[in-house]
Amino acid sequence: MNNFFKNKVVAVTGGSDGIGKALVEKLIIQGAFVSTCGRNHEKLLSLKNYIQNERLSILIADVSIKEDCENFIQHTISTFGKVDILINNAGISMRSMLVDCDIDVIKKLMDINFLGAVYCTKFALGSIIQNKGSIVGISSIAGYRGLPGRSGYSASKFALNGWLESIRTELSPIDVNVMWVCPGFTKSNIRNAALNQNAVAQGESPLNENSLMSAEDCAARILIAIQKKKRNLILTFQGKETIWLNKFFPRITDFLIRKFFFKKGILIK
Ligand SMILES: NC(=O)c1ccc[n+]([C@@H]2O[C@H](COP(=O)([O-])OP(=O)(O)OC[C@H]3O[C@@H](n4cnc5c(N)ncnc54)[C@H](OP(=O)(O)O)[C@@H]3O)[C@@H](O)[C@H]2O)c1
User: Fold this and answer.
1) pLDDT given for residue 264 in this prediction
2) Which of 50, 92, 160, 219 has its CA 20 to 30 A from that of 106?
3) Which residue's CA is the nearest one to ligand 1's atom 17?
4) For ligand 1, which residues put their CB under 6 angstroms from it?
């Protein structure tokens, strides 16, 4: 087994489900000390019971609240002494056309997906610099190509990519690696939890979740990329294809995206 993560302290936001949970599990197996947070106490407790390892610390924190992020990072440092790697993973999605959408949905997406990463990074930065560590943002293909029905989600991920690119340029001379990851469609709870036009979880997935990349596969690739200090990681063939097509043939991509997401003018995915 590779020793890269052994005894490193890794803070993963949103580790109680999906990709975050798979990251936590793999990091513990690889000998890291892991601190994670989420909003739901039961989900965190069930993670703790499932992992059953003293190297895992859990805390209730909502990353859209600045004080919660400060608490989470302070708790990580007081429990394990430092932060080597921060993985800004916590995120939610949405499903609503702009004409129908309550503006609060878009604000909520920005608060969690973008500002949550800003807060946690800012509070962990001193320790990460001291340890010449890494800052990771789990973004999305939607952070390279705006997607219909997810305007707030795309905006939050574009913001995340731009912000990470800026701080990457600031921090690379002092040996802090900054990386963003763009998973393609990955099996998780994200579509069930996606906010509808009234900011309520839609409670279903319009995709066949079993046909998607598994969260475990996604997490394994993320950990390899962190270890290799990659600049970014784009996942799935469909994801790479979308970004490439959009770069060189944006109008054709508009057409193909409409074809994928709409049926008879109605948003179906
Ligand atoms: N799955 C995909 O297809 C896909 C594709 C591209 C990108 N991504 C990105 O991957 C990341 C992980 O998503 P996932 O698919 O694993 O979703 P998921 O299964 O819904 O898991 C999301 C995790 O984040 C936590 N979370 C959500 N809002 C939070 C908040 N305000 N504060 C703290 N924790 C919060 C959730 O716990 P609580 O609900 O208890 O807070 C949960 O642990 C997200 O950033 C997402 O945008 C996913």
Assistant:
1) 83
2) 219
3) 190
4) 13-20, 37-40, 43, 61-64, 89-92, 112, 138, 140, 183, 185-186, 188-190, 193
